[in-house]
Write a structure and sequence with these properties.
The chain has about 90 residues and is mainly alpha-helical. The protein contains three helices and no strands.
């Protein structure tokens, strides 16, 4: 690349959510042991280094997945409680 050619910057769009969606899909399809940052990156179609822009390590990704799961569970419990209370 010469100095007259501007460097192309890679921009995924919503990398963080794409990684989380890829991780959820991998968890639904196979064993927990198969979930690695490299596998998540492969599923999301990005480089193996890309997940480190949002998650410093494998555990950080797992924590975020767990938090999302708890938020979804809470919402389901609230909706179920409303259905029971408003019969």
């Amino acid at each position: 690349m010469n100095s007259a050619t501007p460097a192309k910057r890679y921009h995924h769009g919503d990398l963080r959510n794409a990684l989380l969606e890829a991780a959820r899909a991998l968890l639904e399809e196979g064993p927990f042991a198969d979930l690695s940052l490299r596998a998540v990156a492969r599923r999301a179609g990005v480089s193996h280094a890309a997940p480190y822009r949002h998650f410093p390590n494998h555990e950080a990704l797992l924590v975020e997945l767990a938090l999302e799961g708890f938020y979804e569970l809470r919402a389901e419990i609230v909706e179920a409680a409303k259905a029971v209370c408003y019969r």
